[in-house]
Design goal:
Elements lengths: L3 H5 L12 H15 L29 H4 L15 H8 L3 E8 L9 E9 L9 E6 L11 H8 L6 E6 L27 H22 L8 H14 L5 E6 L1 H12 L4 E7 L16 H16 L2 H4 L5 H17 L2 E5 L2 E5 L4 H8 L5 H18 L8 H11 L4 H12 L8 H12 L6 H4 L25 E5 L7 H10 L4 E6 L13 H13 L7 E4 L1
Parallel strand pairs: 3-4, 3-5, 5-6, 6-9, 9-10, 10-11
Antiparallel strand pairs: 1-2, 2-4, 7-8
Helix pairs in contact: 2-12, 2-14, 7-8, 9-11, 11-13
């Protein structure tokens, strides 16, 4: 599950740059961590891998034939002369098409929508393995722009695959969803007071009402199960008997759902930053506090070693104290960042989100960006002019203005679409209050209310694991979004799977993005041979 920033990047909701690095990092971290997050704590529903008893019965295979057998009109990826991302895809040899799918799979003769896909065809046709479908997580992250980046990550095995990216229903270039929100993100903290929480309740309620008012006809059909159905239509339209898959963050949950719904239709499957189905719900972040505090502590030590550059403190404790001081000031009055015409007002409900996003990656470049942000916040808390680095300004713009409305709308709709959230607002407040003592920074964020508390209940029960799936999972021990504990749970539920662990890394999403040769080589070996390792393997940072 990646972030809002990720949604705009050319890399994915974990790491390489595909859209804009800032957009993707925010989107992925937020989405995944936030959506997935980038919430938690909802009771699991009974094991169920079929339609909910209250849902309409699934259509017969024949009713969907026209979708599975549709011809695809491959062509340019440019949607307009100004579409630079599309132009880059064209230059890389990528072709794009739209796949028509039913809005409601229980009524395939009714309204249709389109799912945008892209394809970088295999060049080693003599040894072609098949097609591999990509999902970058988010939820709400696009992947149409991803095939060239993944081709590079796949090294020698890349030319043997048709690499297929897709923007899930209502995301990116697919039939869009935009509720006209004044913000692009919904994962904020309750802040230090009841007044801050009450503002978050009012915001969440208004966002849900706005989506219901503008998009009531489609919201019930935005779910992981329907996206998995779309994936299978894509497989059929491509003419593939089976399809391979690479999913990051939320994409690992989507991949798992696909294995349960369509068990005979996948080949090689890589789940990077895997989340267990029981952990995917509107309160995804609830059990991620420990990993995020660990990642923040490691970042603080890094920043302390560079005090002469950032001025945040000469020890880990001093850097964390700087954050505490910023939070205390922001709780009394919003901080002013930037200079005209780009001025942002940031308070104690926003700052934990920004820090949460910043600790999703322990690479030096990401740590530098977070240090710049905290330095700007520190200056603002002292009443000084606080210029905002461009990437920080992009992040703030996505989070705090309507510029990110489409991303926030689709991400939230996906998060709310599988499992109902608790409706009692006081339950969230009690959880927040209980968390403050041990987790004063992240507790009021991970326990906070969101729009799902005011969303209509999902039409289907969530997919539960009812049979094994031989997949390759990839995970870092310090992943602050889809935690290593969650990956271990899924691994235990799928005994035929194998787990590739990267030790001592506080990073969400690894393959092709983190630069660890051991991880990349092991994944590529599996993609080349189709053989899982004989046992679980461990790599070292």
């Amino acid at each position: 599950m990646r972030n809002a920033k990720d949604a705009e990047k050319t890399t994915r909701t974990p790491g390489a740059a595909r859209t804009t690095t800032a957009a993707r990092t925010t989107a992925r971290t937020a989405a995944a961590g936030l959506a997935l997050a980038l919430a938690a704590g909802i009771p699991a529903s009974p094991a169920l891998a079929t339609e909910s008893p209250t849902a309409a019965p699934p259509p017969t295979a024949g009713a969907l034939d026209r979708y599975y057998r549709q011809p695809l009109d491959w062509g340019t990826c440019m949607s307009s002369p100004q579409d630079e991302a599309g132009r880059d895809l064209d230059k890389a040899g990528v072709q794009c098409a739209d796949v028509t799918v039913p809005l409601d799979y229980s009524a395939p003769g009714g309204r249709t929508i389109t799912v945008a896909i892209s394809r970088l065809k295999a060049t080693d046709t003599r040894r072609r393995i098949g097609a591999i479908l990509l999902n970058n997580g988010g939820p709400g992250g696009p992947a149409v722009d991803s095939p060239p980046v993944i081709r590079t990550a796949m090294k020698e095995v890349g030319p043997r695959y048709d690499i297929v990216g897709f923007d899930p229903r209502f995301v990116g270039r697919s039939t869009p969803l935009d509720c006209g929100w004044p913000v692009g993100f919904t994962w904020f903290s309750a802040g230090a007071s009841r007044a801050g929480f009450d503002r978050q309740v009012a915001l969440s309620k208004s966002l849900a009402a706005k989506c219901r008012a503008t998009n009531a006809s489609v919201l019930p059909h935005i779910s992981t199960r329907n996206t998995a159905r779309d994936m299978d239509v894509i497989r059929g339209a491509l003419g593939e008997r089976k399809i391979s898959y690479l999913g990051y963050s939320y994409g690992t949950y989507l991949g798992t759902v696909y294995t349960q719904m369509f068990p005979g239709r996948y080949d090689r499957m890589v789940l990077d930053g895997a989340v267990g189905p029981d952990d995917y719900n509107p309160r995804l972040l609830k059990h991620t506090v420990r990993e995020n505090e660990q990642a923040l502590s490691a970042w603080a030590a890094w920043a302390a070693a560079r005090h002469t550059t950032y001025g945040l403190g000469r020890s880990r404790t001093a850097v964390l104290a700087t954050i505490d001081r910023v939070m205390a000031k922001a709780a009394r009055a919003a901080l002013t960042l930037g200079t005209a015409p780009e001025v942002f007002r940031v308070d104690d409900t926003h700052i934990p989100t920004l820090i949460f996003m910043g600790v999703a990656d322990d690479g030096d470049a990401s740590r530098h960006l977070l240090a710049q942000q905290v330095a700007a916040l520190s200056q603002a808390s002292k009443g000084r002019e606080a210029p905002v680095p461009q990437e920080f300004a992009e992040t703030l713009g996505l989070l705090l203005s309507g510029d990110g409305s489409a991303f926030g709308s689709s991400q939230t709709a996906i998060i709310c679409g599988d499992v109902p959230a608790p409706r009692d607002t006081e339950r969230y407040w009690r959880d927040i209050q209980r968390s403050r003592g041990a987790h004063p920074l992240f507790g009021p964020l991970t326990e906070n209310i969101g729009p799902c508390a005011f969303w209509d209940a999902p039409r289907e029960a969530p997919t539960r694991i009812s049979h094994d799936a031989p997949v390759l999972m990839v995970a870092a021990t310090g992943d602050p979004r889809t935690t290593y504990r969650s990956t271990l749970t899924l691994h235990g539920r799928l005994p035929g799977s194998r787990l590739l662990t990267l030790e001592n890394a506080n990073r969400h999403a690894l393959y092709g993005e983190y630069g660890n040769a051991c991880v990349d080589d092991e994944v590529n070996r599996y993609l080349a041979t189709g053989r899982l390792p004989k046992r679980d393997e461990t790599c070292v940072k």
